[in-house]
Amino acid sequence: MQRPSGEPRSQQSETSTHATLRRASLPGLLLAAALLAVAVALAAVEPFGGSQPVELALQMEPVIAALPAVEAAPPRVELPEPEPLPHIITEGELEQGTTLSSSLARLGVAREIAHLIAAELSPYFDFRHARPGHRFRLDQDEQGELIEFVYRVSSTSGFRIVREVDGFRVLREESELVPQPARLAGVVENTLYEAVVDQGESGQLARDFADVFAWDIDFQRSVRPGDEFQVLYERLYQQGLDGVEEYVRPGRILAARYEGAAGSYSAVYFEPREGRGGYYRPDGTSVEREFLMAPLHHARISSSYSSARRHPILKVTRPHHGIDYAAPAGTPVWAVGDGEVIYRARAGGFGNLVKIRHANGYVSYYAHLSRFAKGLKLGQKVAQKQLIGYVGQTGLATGPHVCFRIAKNGQYVNPARLRTPAGEPVPQELFSTFRTASAILLAELDAGTLFAAESPF
Hints:
single chain, Nuclear Transport Factor 2, Chain: A
C-alpha cells in the first residue's frame, strides 16, 4: 500500500500517540503527575531529621489544591431477592349431601389433587364415614402441588398428609384440649339458653348450667325475665388446622349462681376423691337429690299438675296428676332418679309408657313417648338421667310432649313440689379444704374477667 506523500512512518506513529494522549482524561493525568512529583521529592529527603519534609509539604499544597476533585464511585445497588410465590391455602368443611372430592372441586382444587388425597388417606380413613361438619385445610405450592393436607373428623382427632422427599406420609393426630378459665354473667329475658347464646357462647354451657341446678330449679317452669346468672367455667382450646390456637367448646363448670323468682342458688365443683367430683353448695351439702326436677331439657310446660283440668281431646273435666312438657318429637327423655323399669309398653291413652320404681315407695311415669330407648327392658336397672325414650305423640295427645308423673305409695304427688333428701355432703375430714377452695372459686365468680365473645356458636 502506498503511504501519503511527504509523511514518514515515524511521524505517523507520533501523531497517533499525541491523539491518544489528548483523548486521555486531564484530571487523571494531573493526578498522576502530582503523585510522581511527590514520589521524587520524598526520595530526595534525608532519612534522618532536617526540615525538608515540612518545606516540601508547603511547596506541594498549591499543586494538590489545584487538582480537580475526583468523584467517588457510585454505591453498589443491592437488588432484593425475589420473594417466593405464596402458597395456595384452601379451607372448608363438608356440608350435608357433599363429599370431600365435591367440596374440594367446589373450592377450585384440581381433580388429580383430590384423587391423590383420597388415595393417601384411604388406608387410614373410610370416607363412607365422612360426615357434615368434618373440616379440612389444603396447602399447595405455587405450581399447585400438594404440600400438606389436614382432615379433622372431630374437635380432637384427625389426619395429616405431609409431603416428603420420597413421597407422602400420613399422620394420625389427637389434639389435646387445653382449659382456660372464663366467666360469663347475664340477665335472662326469655330463656337461660337464649341468654347464654346471645353472648356468643355455646348452648351447651346453658345445658350444663341447668344440669348443675337440675335438682332445685325447673328451668322450663321457674325462669322469669330479670333472673340473673353467673358462671365460672373452662373454655377448651386446641391447635387449629392452621396451627393457631382456637376455641373448641365449653368445658367443666367450676362455680355457678342463679338468682331469680325460684330463689338464690350457688354451687361449686369439688373432688372428694381424685377424678370423682360433684357440685356442692357453699355449706358443703350436695346439690344432688333423689329426683331431678324434670325429665328433659328445654321443654315448655303445656299443662301443669291439677285436680281439675278439661281434657283437650275428651272434653271432660278431670284431674291431671302430672306435668306435660311440650318439646319437638324425638327429644331425649331420661329417668329422674335411680330405679328399676317395671313397665315398658303401650298403655291406652298414655301411649308408649315407661314406669320406674324408686326407693321409698316412689314410682315415676313417662307417657306419650314416640319410642323407647334402644335396649331398654322390663326389670332393667337404670341410673338417674339415663336415657329411657323420646318425646312423641302416642295415645291421647294433641301434640308432641311427655306427661311426667310421680306417685308415692300408690298416690300421685305434684312433681314440682317434691323435695327429696340431698345426696352425701363433703366428708368432714375434707371440709376445711373444701371451704378454702369454695371461697376462691366464688371470689372468681364475682370478680372474674368476662370473656370476649369470640366463639363461632
